[in-house]
From TrEMBL:
Residues 470-481 have a biased composition (Low complexity). Residues 482-494 have a biased composition (Basic and acidic residues). Pfam families: Xan_ur_permease. One of its GO terms (cellular component) is plasma membrane. The gene is pucK2. Residues 460-469 have a biased composition (Pro residues). InterPro entries: NCS2, UacT-like, Xan_ur_permease. PANTHER family: PURINE PERMEASE C1399.01C-RELATED (PTHR42810), URIC ACID TRANSPORTER UACT (PTHR42810:SF4). Coiled coil: none annotated. This is Uric acid permease PucK. It comes from Streptomyces lavendulae subsp. lavendulae. The chain crosses the membrane at residues 33-54, 61-84, 104-137, 149-170, 190-207, 214-237, 257-274, 337-360, 366-386, 398-417, 429-447. Residues 456-504 are annotated as: Disordered.
Length: 504
């Protein structure tokens, strides 16, 4: 019975591709490319927004996008493959965090815009990345104490907030893209979005396991093909793009280090640490692999290393991307080597602008239809984490509910912080993720205090780490006394009267 249970995923379906399985090359390529398509819009939107706000030239903007994709690929390989004690070794895609957009624009405009502003931004990014990397190497006792700030009620809330905040991003694309929203959107793009969503849902309902696993990819390809036949997908930019575009360190010049931009970026990285912690626990639950504090520490080290590398290679702060956590849950393809393949694709895209232009030609409606489905699955991943929390306790319910309300405030009253607080503070607070995550941490401290030092927050493994008893939830069937103990606990759970799920 234990062996059968070990083969099941968290939602009760058999996993045909465990997290450490190396798939055949054709499947690796196909599933990896699907991750790239699912991630692409989120990957390029940050350099586009920041570059446009800083009045960069089209050529400079293309360079930012290529640098971002190139660094994303390296960062994702580090996170999924793992180098020593850096990288979670889970199917986590690394992407530029949306949390940093407003602060980076504020820093850049304060520095006068243009490439000179990028140098100040990169100085702050490099410093914040190195600080995050160093933090994740804290001694076991200190790191464990910090991780007590992030019990399931906090991480589950943050992941739910991410999904809820991202859904409008997908819906805006579905309606034709942000510039068209004020005019009511574009009906044809909304039709493409609806058709793409319907196609994906039909595949999920009636397709076999393989078709379901690539439903997002097929939806994007099918929607783009239909738009092309109807004259709404344009590929002219492909012919105008170069074949090769190499990213070089410090392309725009030597970074500048100023105290306030550095402080602002350190605060951003604190928020991204909560995001990555939540994503790591969420994807661990999805793939059926136990996540302890050493896993979280490795994930944060990868974040810090990728962020510092981003500043060197003309990119921005990196975080584990929640969008692709939703894709892992939808497709049930749990192999981390799929993400390694996706990283290789992103490196290639970062070197070949012409190839990136093909992917960029996907109409916004098609992209928005697929993205909306995935973002909904991100929110569901957070809800699944919250299912481990006793929400009958009024204090836990208040933490979740009030944090969600804070997260929705910037979207509901977008101009409030711009009008009533200074630009520096506004750049930090005008983010649903920032407000929601901060509210969840503070409210949890008020109502629950620090979480108990449980096995889930075990200290990082290493020669000097004290022995810690891990929870009896291995992915593979335990042996000997551990197996007997697990069987005994399972028997008690079956006979218990109405026993519910408790927080780990």
């Amino acid at each position: 019975m234990a062996r059968v249970a070990a083969r099941l995923s968290v939602n009760g379906e058999q996993s045909s591709h465990p997290v450490d399985e190396v798939l055949p090359l054709p499947k690796l390529a196909l599933y990896g490319f699907q991750h790239v398509l699912a991630f692409y819009a989120g990957a390029v939107i940050v350099p586009i927004i920041v570059g446009s706000a800083l009045k960069l030239s089209p050529e400079q903007l293309v360079y930012l996008i290529n640098a971002d994709l190139f660094t994303c690929g390296i960062a994702s390989i580090i996170q999924a493959w793992g180098i020593g004690r850096v990288g979670a070794r889970l199917p986590l895609i690394q992407g530029v965090t949306f949390t940093a957009v407003s602060p980076m624009i504020a820093i850049g405009l304060g520095a006068g815009g243009g490439t000179a502003a990028l140098l100040v931004i990169y100085g702050a990014v490099i410093t914040a990345g190195l600080a995050t990397f160093a933090f994740a190497w804290l001694p076991a006792k200190a790191f464990r104490a910090v991780m007590r700030l992030f019990p399931p009620v906090v991480t589950g809330t943050v992941i739910t907030v991410l999904g809820i905040v991202l859904i409008p991003v997908g819906l805006k694309d579905a309606a034709g893209g942000a510039p068209t929203i004020a005019d009511g959107g574009v009906p044809t793009q909304l039709a493409y979005a609806g058709a793409t969503m319907l196609f994906i849902l039909v595949l999920m309902k009636f397709g076999g396991p393989f078709l379901r696993s690539i439903s997002i990819l097929l939806g994007l390809v099918g929607g783009t093909a239909a738009a092309f036949l109807l004259g709404d997908a344009k590929f002219a930019s492909v012919g105008q793009s170069d074949w090769i575009g190499v990213t070089t360190p410090f392309h725009f010049g030597a970074p500048k280090f100023e105290w306030f931009p550095v402080l602002l970026m350190l605060i951003v990285m604190l928020i991204t640490m909560v995001e990555t912690t939540g994503d790591t626990y969420a994807v661990g639950d999805i793939v059926g692999k136990e996540v302890d504090s050493e896993t979280v520490a490795r994930a944060l080290r990868a974040d810090g290393a990728a962020t510092a590398l981003g500043g060197i290679l003309n990119s921005f702060p990196y975080v584990a991307f929640a969008e692709n956590v939703g894709l892992v849950r939808m497709t049930k393809v749990k192999s981390r080597f799929v993400v390694v393949a996706a990283g290789a694709f992103m490196i290639v895209l970062g070197l070949i602008p012409k190839a990136a232009a093909i992917v960029a030609s996907v109409p916004p409606g098609v992209l928005g239809g697929a993205a909306t489905v995935m973002f909904g699955m991100v929110a569901l991943a957070g809800i699944q984490t919250l299912a481990k929390v006793d929400l009958k306790e009024e204090k836990n319910a208040l933490i979740v509910g009030v944090s969600l309300a804070f997260a929705l405030f910037p979207a509901t009253v977008p101009a409030y912080f711009d009008k009533h607080v200074g630009p520096d503070v506004s750049s930090l607070l005008n983010s649903g993720v920032t407000l929601g995550a901060t509210a969840a941490i503070l409210l949890n401290l008020v109502f629950n205090g620090l979480a108990k030092d449980e096995a889930r927050s075990a200290p990082p493994a290493g020669p000097a780490a004290p022995p810690v008893e891990l929870p009896a939830q291995p992915v593979a069937a335990p042996a000997g006394a551990e197996k007997a103990e697990k069987a005994e606990k399972a028997e008690k759970a079956v006979t218990a009267d109405g026993a519910g799920t408790t927080a780990p």
